[in-house]
Amino acid sequence: MLRHALIRRMLRKEVAAGDLGARLMADPVLIANPFPHYDELRAQGAIVKSGLTLTTANHEACTTILRSQDFCVEMRMPENLPSAVRMLQRMGGSWALGPAQPPSMLATDPPDHTRYRKLVTRAFSAKKVAALRDRTEEIATELLDELAGREQADLIADYAALLPATVIAEVLGAPMEMREQFLEWGEGAALSLDAGLSFRDFRRSERDIDALHAWMLGHFETLRRSPGDDILSALVTAHDEDGRLSEDELSSIAMLLLAAGFETTVNLIGSGSALLIDHPDQLAILKAEPERWPTAVDEMLRLESPVQRTGRVARADTEVCGRPVKRGSLIVTLLGGANRDPAVFADPNRFDVTRHNAGEHVAFSSGLHYCLGAGLAKMEGEVALRALFDRFPDLGAAGAPTRRPTRVLRGYASLPVALNKASVPA
């Protein structure tokens, strides 16, 4: 908790000095609508000094950094890091086994990252994702059937969250009756991705991560007694028989697969629904030309990136877009800004389901840490949104939506809708 308190203190100092990068982390107004401020940062240069870090909202710089072997995710070269960051590192201490801490795949580099990824890649192959499409359509139909007799719903709680939580539970061999609990724990774990948490958010994050970890350990014992044909059973075998995973590695990978298996997709379905409600002309194109749905999903990911930022550390003196970067420099890549770079995307703030290069977004990162479940998330998003608007073609807003409070993840906490526009109060 002391780390978060010190980060908040440093952020307040930088915000008072007018630093835009710090304001994007601490100012609720900017967090709610960061895109004009990404433009402002981008106009200052491909890479900008911002407080304790370098920052970029430039598409070329982001893709170069994410793909380059000169950058890594682990902070193991402190000599060139800012003194305040070195102090935070030296504080040490223990923390919950969260997604932003090793041995999470999000926070490890090769060779460990390669070893972890190899164990789970086949579960998310294109062939596996294609085989899951029919089951995903069945789940969408079941959830929409439950909404059919209602006039209004919260699209997040009643649909967008439940669909991917059901799919990933089945993929991982986790019990279906736990899906609401997984969503609650995942919401708490997501907070840990942000720096400078309040005491309340920090405590919730630690509590939910610890609870999920404890549940996982118990579930592993169940799988040892009765293994199934699923990825979690395979991971337990890799731990018990092959010795390729420690217990912390086993639990960390399992928790990340579970939480990441629905976090991005919940945000995609929610944001995609809001975009189509607000842009009936684009929905009309999809109804007339349904073959455009895959492009539409990429455009949603580009315009409302479920993950807005990620960080890298330079492992060697290098150069990005003509700017020297010293070994040990911490760089924040603003994915949401790169995805609206006018140098790559014409009229970048416009929602266009026919955009020819929508797939050039970096919403799923790039390079070694490209999202393992990207194919699954895009398939689920397409199935969920297409089924929703086929079933409820007159879907409309029924009140003000609320955003999630997180900075790294962007999406809706609630999205009230009228399932038929005629039911919207005048």
List the main descriptive attributes of the protein structure presented here:
9% strand; alpha+beta; five-stranded mixed sheet; three-stranded antiparallel sheet; globular; 426 residues; 12 strands
What is the element layout, followed by pairings?
Elements: H1 2-16, H2 20-26, H3 28-32, H4 35-44, E1 48-50, E2 53-56, H5 59-67, E3 71-72, H6 83-90, H7 112-120, H8 126-147, E4 152-154, H9 155-160, H10 162-172, H11 179-191, H12 199-225, H13 231-242, H14 247-278, H15 280-288, H16 293-303, E5 309-314, E6 318-320, E7 323-325, E8 330-334, H17 335-338, H18 374-391, E9 396-397, E10 402-403, E11 412-414, E12 416-418
Helix pairs in contact: 1-2, 8-10, 8-18, 10-11, 10-14, 11-12, 11-14, 12-14, 14-18, 16-18
Overview of the structural elements:
The chain has 18 helices and twelve strands. By secondary structure, it is an alpha+beta fold. A five-stranded mixed β-sheet has the order 1-2-8-5-3, sandwiched between helices. The chain has a three-stranded antiparallel β-sheet with strand order 4-12-9. It has a two-stranded antiparallel sheet with strand order 6-7. It is globular. Residues 77-81 have low confidence and may be disordered.
Summarize the structure.
With 426 residues, the protein is of the alpha+beta class. 54% of the residues lie in helices and 9% in strands.
Radius of gyration based on Cα positions: 21 Å
Q: Name the helicity range.
A: 40-55%
Instruction: Indicate the low-confidence ranges by residue numbers.
Output: 77-81
Largest sheet: 5 strands, mixed
Q: How many beta-strand elements? A: 12
- Trace the largest sheet across and list its strands: 1-2-8-5-3
Report, as a whole number of angstroms, the end-to-end distance.
48 Å
Count of helices?
18
